[in-house]
Amino acid sequence: MPLSSRWLLGVTAWASLQGPAQAGLLLPVLQLMRPQLESRLTRVCVETASGGKPELEAKLQSPCQQLAKPTSQCLVEETDATGQSLGVLMEVIQGNFGTVSETVVKRCLAKMLGLPAETLKDVPLRELAQSFKKARS
Q1: Is 85 left (phi over 0), alpha (psi -120 to 50) or beta?
Q2: Angle, in degrees to the nearest 10, between helices 85-94 and 54-82
Q3: Which uninterrupted H or E stretch holds 105?
C-alpha cells in the first residue's frame, strides 16, 4: 500500500475513534486530496468528451481542467457539509463508489445547476446520467 494511502487510512481510523464525523474534522484531509481529484476529473472529462480521438484530447485539456477545479471544490465542500467525510474517505480507500459518495455527487450536481443541494436526493444517479445523455442527443 502506498505511503499516502497508509497515511489516509491512519487518519480515517483516528477520526472514526472520535465519534461521528463532524463538519470540518476531516476537511484538511479532503483539501489535501483535491489536486488528485482535479487530475482525475480532468482525465475522465478528456477521455469521455474526446471519445478516444487524440486530436480532440489536446483541445479538451484546458476546458476540462477549468471544469475540474470548481467541481472538486464542490465535492470537498459537500463532503464536509454532509458530515460524511469519513464515509467518503473509506469508499475512496476501498476503491468503491458507494451511497455516501453518490449523495455528495448529487448534491454537487444540483448546486452546479443552480438548484438547492437536496433537489436530486431521491433521483437515482443512473437516471440522471441517462437524462443528460438524452439531452445531448
Answers
A1: alpha
A2: 140
A3: helix 99-112
pLDDT in tens, 55-109: 899 999 999 899 888 888 888 888 888 887 878 777 777 777 788 888 888 888 8
- Give the residue carrying C-alpha cell 438548484: 115
pLDDT given for residue 39 in this prediction: 87
Cα separations (Å) of 42 from 9, 16, 48, 57, 104?
A: 25, 31, 10, 11, 18
Q: In whole angstroms, what is the distance from residue 67 CA to residue 36 CA?
A: 14
- Report the distance separating Cα 24 and Cα 72, nearest Å: 16
Largest CA distance in the chain: 50
Task: State the angle between helix axes of 85-94 and 99-112 in degrees (0 to 180), rounded to the nearest 10.
Answer: 110
Cell of 11: 487518519
Which regions of 1-113 does DSSP assign to beta strands (E)?
Answer: none
Strand, coil or helix: what is 16? helix
Q: Report the pLDDT value the prediction gives residue 7, as an integer from 0 to 100.
A: 46
